[in-house]
Specification:
With 222 residues, the protein is α/β, with parallel strands linked by helices. 43% of the residues lie in helices and 10% in strands. The protein has eight helices and five strands, in the order βαβαβααβαβααα. The chain has a five-stranded parallel β-sheet with strand order 3-2-1-4-5, sandwiched between helices. The radius of gyration is 17 Å and the shape is globular. It binds zinc ion. Zinc ion binds at residues 188-190, 196-197, 199-200, 202-203.
Amino acid sequence: MKPVLVVFSGGQDSTTCLMQAIAERGIENVHTLTFAYGQRHALEVELAEAIAKELGVASHKTLAVDWYRDITSNALMDTTTPITREEGASTPNTFVEGRNALFLLTAAIYAKSKGILDLVIGVSEADFSGYPDCREVFVRSMNETINLAMDCTFTIHAPLQHLTKADEWALADRLGCLDFIRTRTLTCYEGIPGDGCGKCPACHLRAAGLRAYLASKAPTEN
Ligand code: ZN
């Protein structure tokens, strides 16, 4: 089985991708890479490291992108900025400019050094929050770019690309890790793991997806 590098934040999406990669390829073929880029809560990085260690992935690396905050600003990195979406704005103010392009290029450089050509990223355009770098067209273009840049044949896998949050919970359930993902991952913009603050946009999306999935199951199963 070919090895794979999962871009791993410790959130619901990338943890679901990680679990799927482990189920498909075996833990010995799964490597994780976490970026510490000045996101609101350092806890996110700690949780990612703890999950990678607990699951026993083949290797885990945390990379500090500590200059990111010097060149851009947004509500995800700046805790003094409230999370909002301005009327008419194309993206919410939590959008981090260029993040997935930067992460995928960096992941590809690192992966190549380890002889890994398969990359996984947990982006989805189904519950599209207006993030341009979550779109399939971006992922395909980035795949072509890194192949050209390094004269290599990488494959970027984005298994959640067309899944809604409800679909994603269904996938987690099929993988036998719904409770793990529900309780151990951090998606909340306020930095509260598990079910989170319940109020921020990330919590709303996550909770609505879970409700929709649980409602879609037979009542006797709930
Ligand atoms: Zn929240």
